[in-house]
Predict the 3D structure of the following.
Amino acid sequence: MSHVGCEDHEKLYTQLNEYIDQVKEEPGVLINVLHKAQELFGYLSEELQQHVADKLGVPLSQVHGVVTFYNFFTTKPKGKHQIKICLGTACYVRGADRILERFKEELGVDLDEPTSDGLFSLHGVRCLGACSMAPVVLVGERDFYGKVTPDEVSAIIKKYRGEK
């Protein structure tokens, strides 16, 4: 993933600190601050978790406990375009494993890793609730692709790279 420049990094920390100063007296502040930190930085690195702990005056173990308990928090960077391949039963029996393998080949990454340019990451999910359209791929939160074949993978990737 492309790294945020030092200046940008400092701006993000400044924004986070301003947010913490506004909400630090509220109940349930830790979860809200972690949401804001992940929104700003994309993921919750060890360094960022330590910063939150220091600013809120709580132990790092408490911050880490919350981060690892809730699955909407992530400690790894994700790509700008998160590609979710359904690996539930209906999709799997219709070839989701071949779709996943083709995405891995085309992007040169494994599951839950961002591409070197930070554009994509692959994620296996249990069910996307579109079994009649199996195998299903979801890009981001809204772009569903149904009855996907391995040969369509390249075109899906090109669309999000802005290629024709």
User: Anything to note?
Assistant: The first helix runs from residue 6 to 23. The chain has a mean pLDDT of 92. DSSP finds seven helices and four strands in the chain.
